[in-house]
């Protein structure tokens, strides 16, 4: 009976995808039908409309990833260019399916913990439309509306999933992720060097080219020249501004008492990069704003925030880590089935 059951399941999947692979899944000029099932995640259908929605959220990130890591700029051949064994097209598809599996894992866990009853892409669209209609109506009635009157689908989806994730974390924090004071203090001792340490002062120098003054490909070339120049024993100082008039040299000082806000803040990127260097060591740094070379000149001794001062943050870090591990475990045990005919037919023309 078990063999027969498994055979019937396999035949069902094959029949399912054979029907998806028929001409009904495609229209003229390789346009994929919105209702064509692209993936199955633990038996849950991900149709092309939903897949495309998530893929489009990753377009800017993919451009940025290949630009910053490989210097690949946007062009007609961008999506088909192979770098480090992968094309941007394959990268964005893999990233999209990983995000879809993570979202399904969060929704599955939320349902198991009675945070939500039912959530799919179709009722999400209805919720989004109702949300905008409600705000538009309130605005027409003269009621106060904070923020934009309507929001796009991407923003509303992020809002909903973030809210579900937050409520799920709060519930699990009271049940599955509880920890007593003694164990929490021991946990702090394990992670404090990486998570709760600081240097009161960091000093270094930066020389580089802003991309508003020099295109990326030329900036990378000039920085490579500077790097070779330094390897010969020359110093990284302001004389480089005479050799390279479009370049900018500056000394930088960071104090722990002065916070740096924004994940994409260039100063934050420079500070974090300096912390990975030894005194006198230099490194090439690529950022959205430009290409630079940095050197660490001084680093004060590492200190640690006392446990009593950061106890709440330690607990929050522990619970977030436990949550992330739980989601990864669910994803690891997730069954992904790909409709290869549709998946392999995806090109930039389907999303640009």
Topology record:
Blueprint: H1 2-20, E1 37-41, E2 44-47, H2 48-56, H3 59-70, H4 88-112, H5 121-140, H6 153-174, H7 181-195, E3 197-199, E4 201-210, H8 216-231, H9 240-243, E5 248-255, H10 266-274, E6 282-286, E7 290-299, E8 302-304, H11 307-332, E9 336-338, H12 340-345
Antiparallel strand pairs: 1-2, 1-9, 3-8, 4-5, 4-7, 6-7
Category from helices, strands and their pairing: alpha+beta
Largest sheet: 4 strands, antiparallel
Principal-axes shape call: globular
- How many runs of DSSP E, i.e. beta strands? 9
Top keywords for this entry?
about 350 residues, alpha+beta, Chitinase A, domain 3, four-stranded antiparallel beta sheet, three-stranded antiparallel beta sheet, 12 helices, about 15% strand, globular, disordered N terminus
Structural overview:
This protein is α+β, with helices and mostly antiparallel strands and 352 residues long. Among the domains are: 2-113 and 337-347, no CATH class; 197-304, Chitinase A, domain 3 (Roll), CATH 3.10.50. It is 52% helix and 14% strand. The chain has helices at 2-20, 48-56, 59-70, 88-112, 121-140, 153-174, 181-195, 216-231, 240-243, 266-274, 307-332, 340-345, and strands at residues 37-41, 44-47, 197-199, 201-210, 248-255, 282-286, 290-299, 302-304, 336-338. It has a four-stranded antiparallel sheet, with helices on both faces. The protein has a three-stranded antiparallel sheet with strand order 2-1-9. Helix 4 crosses helix 6. The longest helix has 26 residues, at 307-332. It is globular. The two termini are 49 Å apart. 18% of the residues are buried. The model is unreliable at 1-24 (pLDDT under 50).
């Amino acid at each position: 009976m078990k063999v027969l059951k498994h055979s019937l399941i396999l035949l069902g999947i094959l029949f399912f995808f054979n029907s998806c692979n028929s001409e009904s899944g495609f229209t003229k000029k390789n346009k994929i039908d919105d209702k064509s099932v692209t993936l199955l995640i633990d038996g849950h259908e991900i149709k092309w409309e939903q897949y495309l929605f998530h893929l489009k959220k990753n377009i800017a990130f993919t451009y940025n990833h290949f630009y910053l890591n490989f210097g690949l700029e946007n062009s007609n051949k961008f999506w088909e260019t192979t770098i480090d064994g992968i094309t941007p097209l394959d990268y964005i598809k893999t990233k999209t399916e990983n995000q879809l599996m993570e979202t399904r894992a969060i929704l599955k866990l939320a349902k198991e913990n009675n945070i939500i009853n039912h959530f799919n892409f179709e009722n999400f669209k209805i919720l989004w439309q109702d949300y905008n209609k409600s705000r538009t109506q309130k605005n027409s009635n003269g009621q106060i509306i904070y923020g934009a009157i309507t929001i796009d689908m991407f923003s509303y989806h992020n809002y909903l999933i973030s809210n579900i994730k937050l409520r799920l974390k709060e519930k699990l924090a009271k049940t599955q992720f509880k920890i007593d004071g003694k164990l929490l203090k021991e946990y702090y001792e394990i992670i404090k060097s990486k998570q709760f340490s600081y240097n009161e002062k960091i000093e270094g120098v930066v020389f580089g080219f802003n991309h508003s003054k020099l295109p990326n490909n030329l900036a990378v070339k000039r920085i490579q020249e500077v790097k070779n120049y330094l390897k010969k024993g020359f110093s990284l100082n302001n004389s480089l501004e005479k050799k390279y008039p479009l370049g900018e040299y500056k000394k930088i000082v960071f104090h722990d008492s002065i916070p740096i806000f924004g994940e994409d803040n260039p100063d934050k990127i420079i500070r974090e990069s300096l912390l990975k260097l030894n005194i006198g060591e230099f490194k090439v740094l690529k950022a959205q704003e430009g290409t630079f070379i940095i050197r660490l000149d001084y680093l004060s001794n590492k200190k640690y925030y006392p446990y009593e001062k950061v106890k709440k943050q330690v607990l929050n870090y522990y619970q977030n880590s436990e949550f992330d591990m739980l989601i990864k475990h669910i994803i690891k045990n997730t069954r992904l089935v790909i409709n290869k005919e549709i998946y392999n037919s995806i090109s930039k023309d389907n999303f640009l």
